[in-house]
Amino acid sequence: MIGSKVKVTGDIESAEDLLIEGEVNGTVTLAENELVIGNSGRVSADIEAKTVRIEGEVQGDITGRERVVITASGNVQGNVSAPRVMLEDGGRFKGSIDMGGSKAAAAPSPSPSPKTASADTAPQAKAGVAGVEKAS
Length: 136
Description:
The chain is mainly β. The protein contains two helices and eleven strands.
């Protein structure tokens, strides 16, 4: 855990799960583990982890090997790449989402409707991407 009064500048690599409640500037890499950015967490870094849960603020690109969850209190400015992405109602997101590797995205679909292809279908976030889970 990185406490709420701790500020880290540099690269973080961990072989354990990590909770960030403080401030981190740099990169965060957890190859096979879970990263949680807590409510008071402020991260300005590129992130790579097995699973990423964002309750605080992140500025940077996020790569999740399994999934990325942006909670209702989460605020992300950057690009997200993961096979599963969930944006809870109230969560804020500005960037792009890449869910490459999804079989549904690779298969051609018969004339997609404009609603599924438009970024305007998600008023809380600019993530109107087919396959993005939106939790309530």
